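Write out the 3D structure for:
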Amino acid sequence: MYLKGKVALITGGGAGIGAEIAKRFVADGAKVCISGRRQEMLDKVAKSLPAGSVTTCSGDVTILDDVKRMVETTVKFGGKINVLVNNAGIDPPGSIVEVDMELWKRVLEVNLTGPFLVMKACIPLMIKDGGGSIINIASLGGTRCIPTMSAYCTSKAGLIMLTQQAALDYGPSKVRCNAVCPGAVRTTMMENSTGKPLAKALKTDVDGAFAMLTSYTPLKRISTPDEITGICSYLASDDSSFMTGSCVLIDGGAHIVDPNGSAISGAGLDWGG
């Protein structure tokens, strides 16, 4: 039981990566509170897990009163809070010129200010209990640009820096903070924001779109949400006790690929040939 005795709060826990992290944490022995804006989604995840292992708290990470309820619910359920996973996020597209101002603000509020507020509420409790682990779900898009994803990439880059700032400031208090940066993950959000529009443009289905999207990456496939959970369980555990301030890329090797070389190989040529 890798996480036996741990109590975790997972935001955005009603679907996708967040739901899978909740399932993994419970399987590894933790007690978990999942939060999200849609109670029906949270209930669905909770019903799939053993009784007594999970509780729910609906709310919006951008609203301070909601955040306080999430933290209070977690502590009431488990008696403490050892682990925070900031997973809630949105990914609407839009270039700098095209993106609506209100949408820009909303992406930054959810993806960056939200984690800030939850960390602000959790860190004092972690310090009081002798330490803890914060895991921020950032993105490969926080380390490099994605076309027409100005708000999303900016927010995730900011989240990586916020992670490192927390690691620096609260390491002496035994609070660790790391960022996990997934590449393409087959979630409902990813299918709707990327898979379906790309499939339409390519005149193919979503599987064909994702095959094209990942054709130049070393593993040549999109990941499933459960493939992100192992690193999160490790970061939540005592096995990662000397790891903080890290940005862990879990992207099938996408970050090592040079776009120029990929274009050349895609044309059937060798570099320099």
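The first strand starts at residue 7 and ends at 11.
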